[in-house]
Amino acid sequence: MSNTLQRGDQSEIDEGDDRRESLLRLVAGASLGGSLLTFLVAPWLTVFFVIAFLAVVGYGWLAYQERTAKGLMFLATVSTALVLVLIIAFLFIRSLPAFGHMGLDILYTDGDFWSRANDRYSLYPAIWGTGLTTILATIVAAPLGIASAIFISEIAPPWAHEIVKPAVETLAGIPSIVYGFIGFTIINGYMMDNFGLSSIGSIVVVGVVVGLMALPTVASVAEDAIASVPDHMKDGAVAIGATEWQTIKTVTIPASFSGVSAAVLLGVGRAVGETMAATVILGNIMELPEPLYNVFGNTVTLTSLIASQYGNSHGLHREALFAAGVILFITVMALSVTAQIIEARVKRNLGGDL
Amino acid sequence: MSERSLQYQSQNALTVEHSPTLTGLSVVPIGLFLVAFVVGSATLAGWLGFESPLFGLALETVFTALLFASGACLLATGAASRLEIVDTTPDRSAGVGVASGFGFVAFSAIGLTASQTFGLGGVRWALPASVVGVLVAGSILFAREDFGVTVPSGLFSLLIGGLFLFDVIDPSWTFSPAGFGVTFFGTVFVPLLTIVATFVGAWAAANAFQGFGAAGRQAGAFFLIGTNAALILLVLVLLIAFIVKNGFWYAVDGMEIGPGLHFHWPFVMDGYDVFLGQKGIFPAIVGTFWLVVGAVVLAVPIGVGAAVFLTEYAEQGRFTSVVEVATNGLWSTPSVVFGLFGYAFLVPRLGNNTSLLAGMIVLGFMLLPLVLITSREAIKSVPDEYRDASAALGVSKWETIKEVTIPSAMPGIVTGVIIGIGRIAGETAPILIVTADNPQRKFAPAVLGSFEFTATPPFIVNDALLSGSSALPYQLYGAITTGVVGDDPGYGWATAFVLLLVVLSFYVIGIMTRMYFRKKLHA
Amino acid sequence: LGNASEGSSEGSLSADGSSTVYPITSKAGSLWNSNPPADDEEYWGPGQYDIDSDENLADYWAGLYGFEANDSGKPPFETSIGLNHTGVGLQKLEEGQVDIGDASAPVSAEFPDRSESELEPFVDHVVAVDAQPIMVSKAVQDDGLDKITLEEVQGIYQGEISDWTEVEAYDGPSKEVQVIGRAEGSGTDTSFRNNVLGDPDAEMEVDSRKGENQQVQTTLEQSDNAIAYAGLAFVSDQAPMVNLVIDGTEYTREKMAEPEYPLARDLHCYTWEDTSEKEAAFIRMILHPYGQQQFVEPADYLPLTDERREEELSKLPEPSN
Amino acid sequence: MSNRMNEPQEPAESNRQSTDSVTQTTAGESQEKIQPEWTEYEFQGDPKFSVEDLDVYYGDEQALQGITMEVPENSVTALIGPSGCGKSTFLRCLNRMNDRIKSARVEGSVELDGEEIYQDGINLVELRKRVGMVFQSPNPFPKSIRDNISYGPRKHGELETGLLARLRGTDSTDREQQLVERCLKQAALWEEVSDRLDDNALGLSGGQQQRLCIARCLAVDPDVILMDEPASALDPIATAKIEDLIEELAKEYTVIVVTHSMQQAARISDQTAVFLTGGELVEFDDTDKIFENPESQRVEDYVTGKFG
Amino acid sequence: MSNRMNEPQEPAESNRQSTDSVTQTTAGESQEKIQPEWTEYEFQGDPKFSVEDLDVYYGDEQALQGITMEVPENSVTALIGPSGCGKSTFLRCLNRMNDRIKSARVEGSVELDGEEIYQDGINLVELRKRVGMVFQSPNPFPKSIRDNISYGPRKHGELETGLLARLRGTDSTDREQQLVERCLKQAALWEEVSDRLDDNALGLSGGQQQRLCIARCLAVDPDVILMDEPASALDPIATAKIEDLIEELAKEYTVIVVTHSMQQAARISDQTAVFLTGGELVEFDDTDKIFENPESQRVEDYVTGKFG
Ligand SMILES: Nc1ncnc2c1ncn2[C@@H]1O[C@H](COP(=O)(O)OP(=O)(O)OP(=O)(O)O)[C@@H](O)[C@H]1O
Ligand SMILES: Nc1ncnc2c1ncn2[C@@H]1O[C@H](COP(=O)(O)OP(=O)(O)OP(=O)(O)O)[C@@H](O)[C@H]1O
Ligand SMILES: [Mg+2]
Ligand SMILES: [Mg+2]
Ligand SMILES: O=P([O-])([O-])[O-]
After folding, report:
1. Which residues of chain C have a CB within 8 Å of the CB of B469?
2. Domains along chain A?
């Protein structure tokens, strides 16, 4: 009744199958590579390769579903990485002329930062502005975000948990342009009236608004980290008579410290990249605040520089904006990678428990 | 028993009883803080003014009274505890954190006064500031905890109250720190200081409420953390309420329901047409709809496929970590960078014009990491038992994935996708760069009706996909920046209202889906 | 895909560019697409403009160049008007993405480093005049500032004047001047520098730069110490204009129409190489007294004088019927 | 001491746990009282714990039903019973660790040295200092061995080290060292770790970690030590060490230990309580009696392996 | 049949598992052969499984050492031994579920009905169809009861339902119903669930879920059923049902069951294999003999509770 355990007698068919399969794989690979290549250089030809690819995949699906599916999923995985590669490539290529023209001045120079007339495009004020707003945002987002995370995962009674957790998530959902709208129409005017600012838009407003926007990121990543501290470790502290707060402070937070710091880094990354709120709230002048740390002054951030000047730029001017994009991208990638290294190290050190 | 007799402390009572005096004394400052917060915020928001008295009292008097009451209560609490009139369990010291906190407050206060009022330039102000700061910190450090907590916070309140009382700071007071181009007016400073001082007082009172010591510190910390959570809730509610208040009536103006199936909501269902007098945002809503659909169609198969591959097939190794780095990198890449990328990569290749299709792809790329990460989590959390069970029945991996793994992970994937949609639906910067053109459209992009077959490659074209479009966030941006409908502020608020409605609905649906599945799983 | 040679979509007429010109072209485009019938008094009513026709709006203007009217009431071709900036409009025009590039500064000022011959293919059609106003915050006007000299404006924008008390007509308390500019590269900014500071690339010092005119207006409204330039369309109660005094002549709102007003600038609709019949039909509508009254005046811009109108009309191909 | 079940029911006491629905079981939903299947367990001296009529619910589900028993001092009490019968739940009632489970609700009375622990105003810190606990899987903190042991005393303000303490003259580095040494010796771990007190505790083996947890618990000077299957994650050699240790500890402490191994219960305990599914305490008596001659038929079935 | 340990060692066979480092233990690292402490176990009829000299490694650690035994057909074989001794590992060798653990490496030979299962080209699907497995904690799929049972046959193309199948005329809804009924009856679950076949299986109680898993395993018509502590997560009543079921199943199937309860092994099995720490098989014989009169001292110590 039952079949033999071996597949030996089918080996001949297998071999034919194998050859056909390699052929299919080859054709699929070639057509996909072709699509990509033509899309880069001659987009109107892409369609032929796409059709070829679809045909091969369709045939493969009917003939070898599992392996085709696996291949497709592999492609999906690769293309995720590919998107990043493409971003890097295009950003860098488009920005090279600006870097070439400005040299290191693009990062730092004294005075005469930005002039279309003289083809000077130094990003120094924008880098400074980004740094300053990010610091302010972090001052808002990090402590409040971590406090919310502690509240949600450790302190909140069930009813409060059911309210605060979704609320923090929802806060993440408010689009940045809405914050910008409120900042631009209400807060800017309020600051003018009540803090005697001499010009509309100030770093401090942007910093606080962006901090509010980065807060949910910090809160939810930190909450994951804190919640992953095993209960039995906390029980250990409570059982020798430590209060909940002592347990949080001396067991839970230290055990999840890396996760929490990764959360802060990711929050900082969000703040660095926040665009629309800064664009409509700030004055967007390519100048440094005076004194440099004057948070009530006006300047520009890398993101708002791109968004506000993008429409009016061409030539080297636009390439300089791409350079701003490159700097943004590198910063954020560095933060993201650091966060991952920290998290990986914890996993290694604590044996994958945390 | 010999070893145990080494013990250094006799056993404390198993029960603690807080005297009603202590409870009474420590509840008051918390209540005062709440009052100060409400009155102070209302003053800051301009709902209350210093000209108009509150319950027959000048606003300034109210703040002064709050501060004195809070300060007095705290000092009384401290004294009662120190003199052991009430039973408390303070530690020997309030600790370095509290000491340095108050030390810093003292340092800043003296520093500001010295440099701004007495005009000590350079760093000469730093000397008196440091001396006082260290003194304050030191005495707190060496005082018993009950004193170290209540006295400085009580004195802080009294000091501020004194400044108000003797009109050192009053509503007409101004302070412009040199070089900052900012002026602090008494009208802002008085309520602000009152809130801060009573807040510190409330924290100290929370400490006292539990009789200091470990329990007291826990109460203090929980008070801070709880206040933070409440404030975040408040901010969220205020934000939403504000948008709704400003935008709701404009948005629903002219809405008709019935008779029968007739339903007309002009702002949402009409386009923009001077001749017909329509000022609707239908084209933007449809634009956002198609952008989301396009992004989902692109990102979900790739994201879920990659997630399956990474969890089920790939060996943990260099390849997976590269993909992980890339995914997390994509997740944190700023939206405006995605916009630039789309402009450099897609726009020249898709008809050399801003287009709906370019926006779809860019938003798809932004959605991709969100889908991938959440799907991966969801697939990872499918218990291995299912996979083992299926394997033990002689079922192949792929069949198992199709039949068991993905269906079990579905709730997680769906939730992730919905929340991801909420996020990209509100993105402005990339749309601005790769999709936007005319914000005042009469007609929505007719994507479905625009497919055409051609004899030359690419054989199928869709004009609507290859032309620019509006979208809700862009519409709002347009309203802010270009006054697309002239002097009509309600239009912007109404757009913000609809945008918020759309985006938050996705969040609410996503969160509720997750709750639903959680409940169902645990049931 | 490839290079669409004529316009972004076949059949329709596309324009993009200046946010200053947008109020004109956008209203024209919207009405064109609605194609109101001849008996509509408010928006079309050809009889009011000495036009003898009972056709719908777009049918009439397109008909002049031989386009057939639709039975459905739709215009013979649709228009689509993008909102952007002068630079973008001109660039898109050059790259063949749009039929008309709206501009609030002449192409020569926008691309100062290009040669004559490179600029040749841009065909200029002036459709209206914007006497660029100097605007201030309401509070500043209330403190007596109803006029300002050109030298004072120059001083403010070059960073020499930083307090309102340094401006003669102002008699309020000492107050810092908040100097507001438009984003670099916008037509409005280019023409302001050109007209006030004498060079489209002149250096200037501002406290903030706004991406669009509307943002300038909002900023003025929120401040009590600001000065700015935008387009006439953006003057409002809370962001009023002040008279500019040049060599003793005070230019009021009425006198700004005079050609001597140095901040006056033309608003352009550029076409590429030639003017096609579609483009001509649309531009002719705007140039006609009907268009000047319907689109230009409501936007608060100054209509062209008859003389200039005739001159601009003569650049268009002759109507075929 | 007698099994209180036979005493007349007292009226609802006011000192029950003050969470929601503290109400005594009302007539309407009155449950049948479980009839004891064994005669009272008598011992000399005062009971350390007196548990009376203890019910525990997780949400709507009842995990313990009317448990009444008295635990004698300075002895080892074993709790045995099939999985899910509520042994851990019972144990966690004795130091109110169940308070940490949101859905858990406790009714009835537990007295420690004659003082009700389910009453308002109980000082949980003090209670848990007196009633220490060791968990099923070793859970040292990710800190040094020394810090693991001094954690409790430090949190209770009994030890202070560091610059500040030295400034104030309250430094107790020496006492800390003594304490660490004493506890580790008591937990039979000193020999093995004395030369690496500042290494991370996670580097110890499972059995060492478990003994460290016992030492950590001893450091706060408890009267009672609760142990929930303390050896279930360990190999036989480590298990043997822990068992020896338990017997040693019983000289000074009251030890209550949950185990799923009847052999282990037989080896180490003075008296044994048998719980059976449904959360009832079926018999409580001297260990020898339970294993050799139980009064209840169900216990007999259970210990002879008829089921379980 | 004799304990092969006494036979001369054969040279390295080529049909060992073809993963990395298949090399036979070389002379350099040759391990001392464990001397059997008992005489061979003899039975009549063919063995279902013949295991010879089976070593399993997880990474560098050896979990099983030179196991050699033969499992008779249509009987219940119990595997007992302390925690971590390799019982589960052994069981998972028999249907090559160990292939799913990345670090696991198997050396030696396992024959099913005389056919080597560790050879190239083995059809894992077929093997696992023949050798079914039931896990420690019940793991039904989150699907309906019916779908749980028809899952296997459906995936093997033996059942087809749905629109497509109906169109093609290959619909087998009826056969599915019969199959579900038969399996549920065999698993003694039919009575309890016959009226809710389309309810989600997660709604069943633990014991019902476990029987459903058995039914699911029967649906692919195996010869052998491996069970890894199938009752450890269940209460005594459910346990009793599973035990009855196992005895029932032994009439038609070869059942191999891991248990940590010696009582359970004594109750249900025909023969018992005792593993001890280190992964050695110390004794394998009739259950009665093992529990009453083991030959090995270590087994005697173990079954009388001297340790474990
Ligand atoms: N946190 C909880 N929430 C809900 N139910 C619980 C919880 N903890 C335990 N239970 C339930 O209470 C009952 C008793 O559980 P308990 O853990 O006390 O049993 P146990 O005797 O310790 O079992 P084991 O030997 O498996 O540890 C079980 O039915 C269990 O499912
Ligand atoms: N996946 C794995 N990776 C590494 N080591 C493993 C793995 N699974 C089991 N081991 C180790 O192999 C040895 C035998 O484990 P196995 O699970 O077979 O024991 P067991 O007899 O089933 O124990 P238990 O009664 O606890 O289930 C143990 O030392 C265990 O730590
Ligand atoms: Mg337990
Ligand atoms: Mg096992
Ligand atoms: O938008 P602009 O008209 O200033 O270019």
Report:
1. none
2. 2-95 (no CATH), 114-350 (1.10.3720.10)
